[in-house]
Every structure is written in structure tokens, then in C-alpha cells.
Amino acid sequence: MTGAPPARAAGPLLLGVRHHGPGSARAVRAALEACAPRVVLIEGPPEADAIVRLAAEEDMRPPVALLAHAADDPGRAGFWPLAGFSPEWAAIQWALAHEVPVRFIDLPAANSLAMSAGKAPQGPSALPEPPARPGPAAPEHQAAPGEQEGPGEQDGPGEQSGPGEQSGPGAGSAERLRVDPLSVLAEAAGYDDPERWWEDVIEHRGTGGTEAFAAVAEAMEALRAEYGHGGHEDDAVREAHMRLRLREARREFGDEVAVVCGAWHVPALGERTTVTADRKLLKGLPKVKTEISWVPWTHRRLARHSGYGAGITSPGWYDHLFHAPDRPLERWLTKVAGLLRDEDFAVSSAHVIEAVRLAETLAAMRGRPLAGLAETLDAVRAVMCEGSDVPIALVRDRLVVGDVLGEVPESAPAVPLQRDLARTQRSLRLRPEALERDLELDLRKETDAGRSRLLHRLRLLGVDWGTPAVSRGSTGTFRETWRLRWEPELSVRVAEAGVWGTTVLSAATAKAETEARSAKGLAEVTELAERCLLAGLPGALPVVMRSLADRAALDADVGHLAQALPALVRSVRYGDVRGTDTAALEEVAVGLAERILVGLPPACVGLDSDGAAEMRGHMEAVHRAIGLLSETEARPGTAGEAETGTRAGAGAETGTRAEAGTGTAGQAGAGTRAEAGTGTAGQADAGTRSGEAGEAETGTRAGTGTGAETRAEAGTAAETDAGTETGAGTDARPRTGIQAAEPPTARPGAADGLRARWAAMLRSLAGRDGTPATPGLIRGRAARLLLDDGRLAEDEAARLMGLALSPGTQPPEAASWIEGFLGGGAGGGMLLVHDERLLGLVDRWLISVPAEAFTDVLPLLRRTFSAYEAGVRRTLGELVRRGPGAGGSTGGPGTPAVPGFGPGHDPDRAAAVVPTVRLLLGLDPAPHGNDTMEAAR
Description:
Layout: E1 13-17, H1 22-35, E2 39-42, E3 64-70, E4 73-82, H2 87-97, E5 102-104, H3 109-116, E6 141-142, H4 171-177, H5 181-188, H6 194-203, H7 210-227, H8 235-253, E7 257-262, H9 266-269, H10 275-282, E8 290-296, H11 299-302, H12 315-323, H13 328-342, H14 349-365, H15 373-384, H16 390-401, H17 416-427, E9 437-442, H18 446-460, E10 466-469, E11 479-484, H19 490-497, H20 504-518, H21 522-535, H22 541-554, H23 558-577, H24 583-603, H25 609-634, E12 638-642, E13 658-661, E14 710-712, E15 717-720, E16 724-727, E17 731-734, H26 750-766, H27 776-788, H28 794-804, H29 811-822, H30 828-834, H31 836-848, H32 851-865, H33 870-882, H34 907-912, H35 914-920, H36 931-936
Parallel strand pairs: 1-7, 2-5, 2-7
Antiparallel strand pairs: 3-4, 3-8, 4-6, 9-11, 10-11, 12-13, 14-15, 15-16, 16-17
Helix pairs in contact: 1-2, 1-12, 5-6, 8-10, 12-16, 13-14, 13-16, 14-15, 18-20, 18-21, 20-21, 20-22, 21-22, 21-23, 22-24, 23-24, 23-25, 24-25, 24-26, 25-26, 25-27, 26-27, 27-28, 27-29, 29-32, 30-31, 30-33
């Protein structure tokens, strides 16, 4: 659409364009240079007249968008995106460079936003267009209240909803009238792809000028004569306003007026109507107070697959075509080669040369004036990617679409919250980017801690710039991983959040306080408390804590309490990591845990299968929470620690650490050392006690296997877990199997006592084999939790399984117990692999199940064993095939063992992997060439 200078005709210069079309942009720029109008009118909201001059600022870099929103409801908003290759942007830049006035002539956003309030998502349409077939112009976006895809996301003309679409008798006829003008024109020209036709006729042609504009206008006039408004009745209102604005400009500047609008509207602007008729159409339109500003946009949001009604398939490709000074094909394929090389693909200059030749050859064979995107991608696939579509997907994502994010100057209008967010982003060196990336944070560093607080505060405000992700490195609580991507609609979310305050901190605090007062459930408040701690909102915590205490006191449902406890315990732990005072939270957490301890056993009675599954989830969550609470409680107040394995709970388990607090007795687990606090009794691993600070170690310890220990408490009692407990010469009680809970007065932390009492409660649930009202799923899971915690001996676990799978137990109940004990993908398969006694019990029980009951238990068993990894299932199959024996014996003295499944260790097989392991650990130098396999041998 570029070529000879257009001859001036009577009347205004009407330039019908395709939104986001580089060919249209070049033609508009050439036409304006040739005609030099005194004013430029552009399709867009007139409210933008006041800020259009910001487009000339050095810091303004497209893609950008005009954002208009209702002043009292920022969520009701509309976007008018502009890319560097958009004809409207080219017209704005030309006018500002030549000091020519720029005015927007579409229906005001005050009217269009008010009209959208009671309708389906809609927007000003320039040309009817289905999702996969862009026309010469298409609608800019406006969002309706409650729209799910985000502000600015809407259906374009020809999609499922659009301007003028309403439910009722006329809805079907309007839908039938919607057409794609490009499809009609392409079909008339013998093309089956409208996009390809547009590229051949407009984008790739070097001739045109006003003749091309006139040809497009003539085609649109014929289509409108055939199809009317194309199913969008609101176009009549918009076009009436455009005509009124055009008349005003002509009265002021004469006929030296240029109009840049969607080609679909050109016939309507040239139509002879009266001022009275046009004003009648605009009379009585609803109106709302609006605010408008510039916001950054992205190429990805210009793409049609994002849901943008005026979207194009290849914004990155179009941007390249518009800005490439010469040889666009060669420059594009050079970009592709650079991208593939950055991703470690072997691509050389020779590949680029051959790809250029192939693309030009394909274009000639297909009768195209220039190689288009289809030809370039075919050439890249064949020459650079060796026929693979995997790197082609990368090229499409990074280059064809692209992740370019525009910028707007600081002088652009913005709500105070947006300005505070921008200042905070600069101070934390956290730049918004369109490309998704992972951000690792170390909360021990001040800058990273500030970034974490900012992202958590924004999430609380509904601005999801970042989402928490699973860390690939350390899982410590001092590390966080975030996945960041800035989307244009987040600007609307920031404007919406501006009602809560003028800074991110004050807005997040105010919203948290409001949510705490309006929360309906206990779990909501505990989750909010956790979010407040993560976001660093000390001002909101008093309100949240009052709400939490009130709801915790009134809620008696064990399920609700169990849902609330994990988040509350995480809050206590995170607060400790971040240096926040969480004493009040810990007090509430301990109170909730106490109530769960009392209420859980009766709550497990009389449950059906669904209720039992839900209660199992609650029980597991509470178990983890109490463990975290114990760890949090045990850290402060210690004088010294020794660690060998896991930490000690109430009643110090085998292989734990010993802690000695000032003025209290120390404690040591098997294989650890005991450290005595100042002026207190020490302890000896051999079962002796020492009357002075110090330590005695003997290397062995009595009572191996059940956490035997000797503990001396200052002037109170001494206990031996495997034997008896003696208290001050009077109290003595036996302990066997699972440790009993200490009384609350005998331990320094409430959480440790909770852990011991929780273990006792689990033991009571696991042993309820004579209470059919307690589901087997619950009893089996209780036993498994005790076994994993080291509070249940393996012999005792085998005894419980034997009771649950005895002939007197109904097969469905036995299968339910197995699912509780071995299911959930929590290592149950490995438990069977390493303890063939349990595998033998399951095997023998399964053989004994009557045929008529087998169908009932099969779904439960399939659900249990299907959660195991493939390798675990294969190993179990081999063990069952050779016949596991009690105590882990083989199938018989004369039976050859299956490789890898024999008794004991196989030294030859173990030695075979040693070189590879040493190589992976960096202990040996890397071999060269084919020496790798030799080293493995």
C-alpha cells in the first residue's frame, strides 16, 4: 500500500486500515507525508486527546495501550492497544513530529463503558472478524464487569459474543449475519487462507498509494451493502459520533483532514447523513465518569491466541517486517539462527544461506510475491531444525509472537498506588518483564526479603505478578521461588487495588483487615494470618488475630479446626524464620491442636468411605503441623545441641539430637552425645547419670530399636524408655512399645507435650480393631504415621496388620486398612519391598479372599498399588513371584534368586556402579571419548 503520492481529492482523506497491519502503517505514513493534512483524526476514545502528546516522549516505547476505566469501578475498563507497526501509532508519530493536532473520534469511553455494564463483553468494532481470520480492522478491547479472562479480553466480531449480541428472538439472526470480510474477499480471489491473501495483496506489495485505500474502501462498501452492520448494531452509534467529530474538524480546518480508522467504517464515514439524525442516535446514551492513561502492552497480548478480538497471528513477525530497513527475509532468518544457537542448536551461516534460498524457492513455487511467514518457517524446519517441530515451537514463541514489553514515561497519569509500586520496583531492582522467568530469593538478604514482601502484598491485593513455585534447590524456609510475568491487565488490577490505599503497604494492610472482619470460616482467617506474616503486615495482625481467636472459640467442628491448623503453624514457623513475633499465633495454634486431640477420636466414628478419606487427609495435615510446631517450639531457649539424624520430640527418639537448656537437664538419643546446661545434671549414654556438667559416652546404649534413653531431670525424675521411670524416689511406671506422653508440667514446651499426646491418640486409633465403627482407613493410616515417626516397632506393625487381615475381618474393611497403611503414595510400596513379612501378610490375605468378595476389594487395592512408582511395582512383582518368606527369606534353599532380589547384598553388582558414582560426584576426572563405557565397566 505504498507507492506514488496520492492525488488530493475533494473532501477529507479517509484511510481505511487494518489494525496492527505493517503494510497499512507504511501506507498511512506515506499518505500523510504526501498530503500533509492540518489535523489527523484517529479511531479511539476522545478522552485520550489530553494525553496523546505523551506518545512523543523518549521513554514511550510501544507496544502500549490506552487504558480507560470507570472512576468508581476500575475493574470496568477498556484497552486500545497500539504496536510500533499499528497504523494509528504511525499516524500519531507523524502528527506529533510535524506538530499537527491529533484527535480521537470514536465513541467516548464514558459511554462505551457505561453501555457495557449490562451487556456481554463488547467493544468498538472496526471490521467483523472470527477468531482465526483477521480482517482489515478489528475491535479494540473493552472489558465488562466480572469478565473472567481479564480486563481488555473480549470476543471480537464473529465470535461467541460481541456488540449488539443479546439473548432473545433476534440473537440467532444477528449471529447468522456475522461474516468475515477477508474470507469473502480471499475466496473471491481464489485463496483458501484469508491471512495469506492479505499478505500477498497488501503486506508484500510495493505499490498502492491512495489507489489501494480506494480499492479497500470500495470492497468494504460492497460488503456492507451485502451484510449491513455485520451483526454489530452498536456500530451505528459509534459511526454517528465519528461523523459528528469529522464535521467539527472540517469546520475548523476545511478539507485538509486525514482520518485513520478501521476499513469497515470508511463507507459509513462517507455516507451523507444529517447532524440531527446522528445526534438522535447518540441521545440518551448512558455515561460514567472515566479516567484514562497509557499502560505497557506486550506482543503476546496482541496475539490472537490470547483472546484479543483484533489479534494477529504473528506480532513479532509483523514488527520485523515494519522495522527492517532492507532484506527482511535475510535479517529474519539471521534472528532465528541466533535464537537457536543460544539454545545450543548447531546452526551456522551456511544454514542461513540455504534457508533463504529455500524460502525464496517455495514462494516462487507457490506464486507469492515474497516469502511469507509460512515459507520461512518451512525453510527453518527443513534446514535448521532437521524436520523437528520442537525448535519450531521455540521460534514461534520467542520470535513469531515475542515477549516484547512496552514502556510508558513516568509523567503518564497513574493512580498513586501505581506510582508507589513503580518506586518500590526500582528500589528493589525488580523490573517487570513480559518473558516468564523464575526468581530465587534468599530471605536472609535484605533485598530478597523486600522482594518477597512486595510479591506477597501484591498477591493479597489480587495483582498476581508472581506466583510461588517449587524450588529446585534448597527446601529451607529461608528460600522462596517465584515465577514472574507481567501482563498488561495487571495495570487494571493495580488501579482496582488503589481503593485500599495509596501505597502497596497501606493498601495490603487495609484489605487484610477488611477480609479478616468479613471472613466466614476459621480456615480463611488462618490462611490470611499466614499471608499477613509472609507479606510483612504488622499493622493488620492485631485485627486478624482478634478475628482468629473469636472464630476459633466458636468453631467446634474438628474438620474446620484441622483445616485451620496447618496454615497457622506455618505462620508460626515462617514468622520465626523472618524474625517476627508470633507468640500470639503460637498460643492459638496450641489451643487448636489441644481441641483437635480431644475431638478427633469421636469424629472418626461412623464415617462412610468418603468421610473416612476426608478425615485421613485432616489427620495427615494435623500430624505434619504438630511436627512443625514441635520443631518451632524446641528451638528457642537451648544452651547447646548435638545432631546426628532427626530432631527429638517429646520422649527423645532414637538417632535424635540432644538439647540442654539453662537450668534444665540435657537429653540424648541413641548414637548422640549429651550436653549438660550450666549447673544442671548431665547424662551418660550407657545409662549412668553424672552429677556435674559434662558428658560421658560409651559407644553403645541399652534398648536399641525403641529409642531407649536415660534422662536426668533436675531434682525430679529419671526415665529409661525401655525399662521403667523413677521419679524422686516415688513414682515409677513401665514403658513399652510406643512412648507415652509426658504430663504438661514435665516438659519445657507445650508443643513437645502435644506431640507425645498426639502419638498416644494415634496409638489408640490404630489399636481400635475391636471397634468396627472406626474405619479401617483411619486405623491403618494411624499405624503408618506412628511407624514413620519411629514410635511403632516393626513387630508391632506386623501384629496390627495381622489383626486387620485376620479371617474375622470383612474383606472390604481389610482392604480399607491396607489402603490406609500402604496407600497415598507415601512410601508404602518401599515398605513392602524392605519388609517381606508385611508383604507376606498381604499376599496370604489376598489369596484367602473369597471369590465373591474379591470384586468388592479389587478397586481399593488397585487404587492403593497404582500410586506406587513403576519400579516399585516391578520389584513387588518379582518378590511375589519368587514367594516372600517370613523374615525376609528366599523362596527356598535350592531356589535360584531372581537377579537383584536375592538375600543380602550383591558385591559384584554394587561394585559395578562405583566408577559412575565417583564420576558424578567429581571424585574422578572425566574420561575422554569412548573411555566412559570402559570406566563404567
